[in-house]
Structures are given as C-alpha cells and as structure tokens.
Amino acid sequence: MIPALALSLMLSWVQVSSDTYVVKSSAGEERAKRVLKELEGFHQLIGSLVFRATELPELPIEVMLIGDDQTMKELAPQYNGRKVAVAGYYQRGQDRDFIVLSGRVFPQTLTSVVYHELTHYFLGRSLISRPTWLGEGFAEYFATADVRDEEISVGGLSADRLQLLKNNQPLPLKVLFAVDTNSPYYNESLKANMFYAESWAFVHFMMHGEYADRFKRYVEALTRGDANLLDYLNVSERDLELHFLNYLKVFIHHAIRTHVKVAGEPWQMKVESIPDTETQISIAEIFLANGKLQDARRYLEAVAARDPEFSRATYYRGVLAGIAGDPAARDLFVDALLDPYLGPRAAVQLVNMGELHIPSVRTLLEQAARSGTRNSDVYWALSDIYLDDVRRIEEMVRLAQRGSAPALPLPPPIQPPIPEPARHGYAEGADQNVRYQLLSESASGPLVETFVAPYYPEELLEQRLTGEVVVDVQITNEGNVAGIWLVSATPDIFSSLATTAIRQWKFEAVAAKIRVVMEFKP
Q1: Could you tell me which of 397, 401, 377 has the C-alpha nearest to residue 389?
Q2: Strands, DSSP E only, in 350-499?
Q3: What is the CATH topology of the domain spanning 1-156+261-273?
Q4: Beta strand pairing status for 88-92 and 82-83?
Q5: Which of 160, 284, 309, 358 is most buried, with most CB under 10 Å away?
Q6: Where do the structural domains in the chain lie, given as residue ranges?
Q7: What is the distance between the alpha carbons of residues 456 and 454, in angstroms, rounded to a whole number?
Q8: Among 9-13, 179-183, 225-229, 240-244, the least confident range
C-alpha cells in the first residue's frame, strides 16, 4: 500500500458522473451528487452565458472530492518547495482536466470552491492570455454566483473581502497587474489574501462600473492573444486607479446583482461504486501533469500489480516508459489501443515511435478523424502514415520501371499531403536551461521583445531529462501571440510547459507566422 494515501485508499469511493463531469468521492455519495449538480448548473448557465466559445475537452473532466486531510495534503500544490494548503484547485492535464476539492469544508463553502475552480477551467479553455489578477478576480467574482433552476445572479458582495480592503491599503494597480503565480502575493497567506480580495473587487468594478462594455471587449480580445487593458478602457493608469478607489469607497455597496434567465439542457446522473484502482489512476495522472514522475510511477505500478489489464494505466505506463527511453513503451502502447478513450492517443504515440504499419493504428486514427476529433495530434499522425504510403508507391513505381514487379499490392489511392515549406533560422536565444530558435520561410521575422522562460520541474532537472518542443506561432500586428499549433514534443510532458510560456511572449509588431524550436537542457 502507498503510505501517503493509505487512509484515503481504504475509504469507500463512489463515482457520480454525467457526460461532461466525473466526480470521484471519498467524502460520501450525497456530497458527490451535490458537487455534480453544482458543476452542471454552473457549466450550463455561466458557461453558456459568459464563455460561449469554450471548447470542452473530449475526455470528461474528473473531479476528485477528497474526504481526508492526508490525501488533500499529498495532492496540494507547491510553492518554494513547500505544500500550500488549499480547499481546491484546477489542474490541466495531458489528456483531460482535473479539479481537486477538499470534502472536509462546509457545504456552502464547497459550493464557492466549486464555482471558483470551474471558472479557472473555463478561463483556461477559452482565453489564450490570462493575466493572474484576471483569473483570480473572475474566479472570486463567480464564486459568489447564485444558481437556481434556470436563473443565475452574479455580482454578490463578499463581506470578508470588503473588510480586508477597508482595513488595508490596496495594492497599486501597477503591482496588482504584475503579480504572477510565482509571486508572494499569489502564494504567501497574508499577501495572497490581499491580492485575491483586490482582484475580486477590481473585476467587480470592471463588470458593474463605468467601463463594463469596454472590459468585455478586452476579455474578448484575450481569446485571440495578449491585450493591454488600458488601451481598451482608453484611460490612464492613474485615472483608472482613482476611479477604482472611489468605486470601493462608495459605489460597490450600491451595485446591483445581474440576474439572467438561461434555459439549461437536460442531463443524467449515473452513480456507481468504484475500485481503488480507478482512484489511483486519477491521482497518477495529476502527478504526471505536475511533472512528479516518481509519484506517478508509484501509483501506476500499484494499479498494474492489482489489475494488469487496466488499459488506462497501461497507456500512462507507456508515457513514462517513453520519457525514460524504455523500449517497453511500444508494447504498452499496443496494449493501450484497446482503451475506448485513450486508444487514438496510444496510436499517435506509436506513430511517433515509427510504428506506421500496425493496421489497428491506422484504423483508430481514421475513425477518430472521421468523428471530428479535436486532437490535432491525430491528424499529424495520419499525415505521417499517408506520407509513408506515398513513399512506398514511389518505390514500387521505381521498381516497376526497372522491370521488377512489386512484391506487395499497391495501397489504396490517397491524396498526398501538401509538403512542408522550407524554413530557415533567423534568431535564437537562451535562458538557464532553455534554448530557443526562431524560424520562418523567408529567413527573417519578428524578434522576441519579452521572453518568459518555461517552468522546468525540479524532478525533471534532477533526472537530467532533456526535451525538444516545436510549435508554429501566429503573431499579430501588435506583436502578440494570437495562436499556437503544436508540431511535436519529445517527450510529451514538455509540450504544455513550452506552450504555456510562449503564449506570454511579446514579439516585434510585425504580423507573421513563425516556427519556434525550444530545447530543454538540464
């Protein structure tokens, strides 16, 4: 048994699910049902009202409702090498998203935490650029939402936040806007409380004050890339600060909640008991998404020992084997082709390993493509297979022209993919353990003006794990990143680390589409 989570895994786990969410709970069935109802209500009302264009992941979001403190502590996020006590958090994973919640808080508090973390989910899925103050401010703003049947009201006041702002000097807006996830204002309790309170109040000011219409246009701009708030509000920072402080003193107390009626779609709830292995695999995925490879491996091995046929665990064991350069990864991915959800992803992994001629790999990828999958890796893998078909045809034709009949029948006719254009390096840079190169078709392009280094997990540094990520980047006339397309990542774990950083880069004000090759070297 795994010591850190032994108590949790001895508890009885129940799974309550819909088409969009899976709630795994060791805090009781009734609390799990309540969380699922709140997720669905918030999703259908807030999601359809505010974040209409949000693209949901193909795999259901998993919510871990933890009933004991030890497990919650084990899964808690870290800051400066120390665990940070939280009631819940949102974690974007490689193949699905997670929300981790403590089941030990009071029901009303849990409702606020659910709304807070689900807001982070919608922001993470809808906005390309997400300033920290905006994310936490929106999350706190919607945490006070009142969802009832087909009506939602937002804009409620938080007495605790207002009292904190009354008793302390608010942060200058310049400081507020500069806070990121590495800042003490985000992680250290006293400073963080002030940051969260002011972020909530400032978003409340933006949503209900004189700049409401311009603020909505600013948020819309963030769905396409980075944007400057002051440009959209058409106001100086000094005047904005004065208006905000005046709003805090006078107008926020008279702000009226916004009430909106929205017709929700019907959904069904499924309740079932689940074995410990279902819980362990979710925990392993959360650790994997955080770069904690040893913790992930420990749980995956425990699952494999108890259920060798568990294809979901087999897939992620293959991911870890691939990172370690273990040739066993191939056989693990072949076995994982049987998984109803992860089968196409296992097929992509096999193509990346050069296994282009396994019939079930092509079949799974083509089925996923016909169903309209949003996983771009599926289409890249199919392109590799089809390009290999073209090479084989050319070789057979060459042999036929020499008078040698082909030994194999010709594959079915296909449309050859458009060849990749030639690209040339025009700039490069480095920062500690990361080096990048910029390429374009014309051997020139916009340079990086603001560089944000990607996060390099300590565990990967200790293992001296190297990697390379290749992405195509669309840059606007203002030099902002408007879109990112992942071309390749070796190993996969570096993909989200690289793309998260590149989204925050600022380039010279020249519209262009370029390629970035980023190397991770410990």
Answers
A1: 397
A2: 424-431, 434-440, 448-450, 467-475, 481-490
A3: Collagenase (Catalytic Domain) (3.40.390)
A4: unpaired
A5: 284
A6: 1-156+261-273, 158-256, 424-520
A7: 6
A8: 9-13
Give me the residue label for tokens 């009303």: 108
Phi-psi region of 396 (alpha: psi -120 to 50; beta: other; left: phi over 0): alpha
Taking only the tens place, the pLDDT of each residue in 141-198 is 988 888 776 677 888 888 888 899 989 999 999 999 999 888 888 877 666 789 999 9
Question: Within 13 A of 10's CA, how many CA atoms are on the CB side?
Answer: 9
| Nearest partner of 184 among 165, 173, 202, 171, judged by Cα | 171
Q: Kindly give the interhelix angle for 189-208 and 237-249, rounded to the nearest 10 degrees.
A: 90
Residue ranges in 290-375 assigned as alpha helix (H): 293-306, 311-323, 329-336, 343-352, 359-370
Q: What CATH superfamily classification does 424-520 receive?
A: TonB (3.30.2420.10)
- C-beta separation of 416 from 387 below 8 A: yes
Please tell me the distance from the alpha carbon of residue 226 to that of residue 129, in angstroms, as a whole number.
5
